[in-house]
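Researcher: Final request for today, and then I'll write up notes for the group meeting. The sequence and the SMILES for 2-phosphoglyceric acid follow.
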Amino acid sequence: MDRLLVLVRHGQSEWNLKNLFTGWKDPGLTEQGIAEAHKAGEQLKDLKLTFDLAFTSVLSRAQKTLDIILGELGQTGLETFKDQALNERDYGDLTGMNKDEAREQFGEEQVHIWRRSFDVPPPGGESLKMTAERVLPYYKAEILPKVLAGKRTIVAAHGNSLRSLIMELEGLSPEEILKRELGTGTPIIYRLDENGGVISVQDLAD
Ligand SMILES: O=C(O)[C@@H](CO)OP(=O)(O)O
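Model: Predicted protein-2-phosphoglyceric acid complex:
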């Protein structure tokens, strides 16, 4: 049985381009982000992959990326579950702030801790650990059982919601996951065993 799970971060958003902390805000994709989503769809098509189910967040940059990918695959209208559990990490008070200006105001090290430490949340927001505490229960209850039942599944979500999932899938330590950066619009293809363990992983960025 093919237990296929593809994860893809949304294409570049307007706020990625402006270098703003985005979190739960809902900017659209840039031209480049749209092109990245088309490329992701083409890459999956070249590999002759199709899907039975899709999951995404309630944020439009992830939904639009998914729509474009499904369009490339000739699968527009595929059954799709949208859930806030897959949203980007909430950046709290940093939301909307320019990342360079935040470094000037709070210092490079503090901003790095807020962005890439495992369990230090930004003021009023979520740490990666807190993000994992909502992503992983959703994954285990809603996504994994479908993959294990042979439903070929694609998940279009966000840098930090996917990092918390990758940490679990690949058994990475907090130190290892913090170094893992996900490219916008880049699919990562997992094949799982009957217990949900990873048999193979192919990052199309490589
Ligand atoms: O701004 C955000 O919401 C995220 C993803 O773009 O940024 P960071 O890389 O700082 O986690």
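Model: The pocket of 2-phosphoglyceric acid is lined by residues 16, 21-23, 88, 91, 115, 159-160 (CB under 6 Å). The helical segments are 14-17, 31-46, 60-72, 99-106, 108-116, 128-148, 159-170, 174-178.
Researcher: Thanks, that's everything.
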